[in-house]
Amino acid sequence: MVEGTPPSSPALAPVAETQSQAPAGAKGQHRLGLPGATALVVGSIVGVGIFNLPTSLAGYGPITLVSMGLTTVGAVALAALFAALSRRMPAAHGGPYAYARAAFGNGLGFANAWSYWITAWAGNAAIAVGWVLYVEVFVNTGQQKIWSIVLVLVGLWVPAFINLSGIRNMGAFQVVTTVLKFGALVFMSIVGLFYIKSANFHPWNQSGEGDIGAIGGGMAIALFSYLGLETAAVAAANVRDPDRNVPRSTMLGTLATAVVYILSLVAVFGIVSSHTLAKSTAPFSDAVNVMFGGHAWGEVMAVFVIISGIGALNGWTMVTAEMPRAAAADGVFPERFQRLNRRGSPAFGVVVSTALASIAMIINYIGSEGPTVFTVLVLMTGITAAVPYGFSALAQIKFRILDRRQLESRRFARDMIVSVLSLAASIAFIYYSRDTGHSTFVYWSPFLLTVGAFLLGIPVYRYQRDRMTPPAAAPPYR
Predict the structure, then answer these.
(1) Which of 37, 161, 268, 438 fits as disulfide partner to 249, beta carbons 3.0 to 4.6 Å?
(2) Residue in 74, 158, 101, 126 with CA at minimum distance from that of residue 323
(3) Which pLDDT belongs to residue 20?
(4) Burial category of 420 from C-beta neighbours within 10 Å (exposed 0-12, middle 13-18, buried 19 and up)
């Protein structure tokens, strides 16, 4: 604050000394430092989304490289948004939920918490489905549906048991898998560029829609590959020195991921035709096979993707429990989500979230094949993620307007531009989240599933409404 600033408004109260302290959670020596927090961000972003993305985008054609570029701009804006919000509220366990609650109260706080929780467990279901598409390079090659479901369940519950064993095991596993998966993307981003054939970029738009519609549809699908950029803020209770490490890990992880995403996607679209990609279940493996011939190197790539998927499922399983745990501490979610097992893991949240992911996956497999199930779940999670993303942007806009009234105008223009870009991206992701090229039911199924999941939250909200504690005012700008 500058001298002469009027007293803080109720929405921006002075920060107490305890505000900068790490919130209750894992013991200090077991919390994540900057490398671990960055690995959590990268490991949660880089799951199997990018490795299955070429197949999901192939129906639109290479024009979706523009979609990916615009989505990357939106992702970097969101990363900057969460970095700024985490500096203001470094101890705000719960990330997007906590920001919306501080700005708009318990009602919208619950809606954002519920929406983000849906994103976490439905996203886990999508990651597991995409993971199995690469596992089936080796087993269940005929893709019999019942065995595909069994494999997905294995992919969901193994990371759940790792998380139940404690934050130290979870963090170590995350660092190892992140290094391996990032290496696979770096390889494709560098070596793959030498195998590009320009003919594979034609036709540029094969969707039958106008260029704007094709780009927008591609953006909605591409968003899934960036989900997780906010995970360090969500898991602030498990990060050492969150004031410094949460914003740094958020930006470092997102920017590093963005570079390899763009380059590797250009490589895959340039190596394999869109027609072939549309029918592929393991597009990165197919691209490597085209590069070197045979199947052996494609199988090596599949192993790296399998490791990548387990790492992402490991990180997201923690997120599925940490966000409800933060909400439970405020009385917004049932108290059981707050309880820890003897290893310091929020066991109830891990088990319930993994069970819901299992149910969502099984429902989507009924009447659909793996690639279609993956795309539907991807679009659903895009909608449910865009809601808390958008309200986080609105919270920042509100906070900064109040700051300006109190004569605190440092970085005002930058923060407002970032917030407006983040809000616009969130709205666009929701608008374009329709599964084009399918029957009417499948076309609208991402919205129908989202509505159904939100309706489940109504009785929970009514039950918890009188148990919610008043939200604390956001601290002043820092």
Answers:
(1) 37
(2) 101
(3) 34
(4) middle
